[in-house]
Amino acid sequence: MTMQARHTIRILRMAEIDGQYFEVPAFVHRSVCGWQVRVTRSETQHIADSQWGGPLQSLKAATKLASSQRSALAAA
Fold first, then answer.
1. Which of 26, 50, 51, 69 meets the CB 3.0–4.6 Å disulfide criterion with 39?
2. How far apart are CA 54 and CA 75, in angstroms?
3. What is the rounded distance in angstroms from the CA atom of residue 71 to the CA atom of residue 33?
């Protein structure tokens, strides 16, 4: 019997912004003018590109918001 190597597999969602690729985490989705964060079924928050200086900055803000909401949900 041979021993099989362990593999790490990640399925990533990516966004291309100005020719560069960035990971889009779970619970973050693109809208026409920004990013939506939906961690719970009822609450959605919108992070507008125009309020954060562009799509990359708003993606970073949405990622941070989704992470903090998931942490709060896990602690509850």
1. 69
2. 32
3. 26
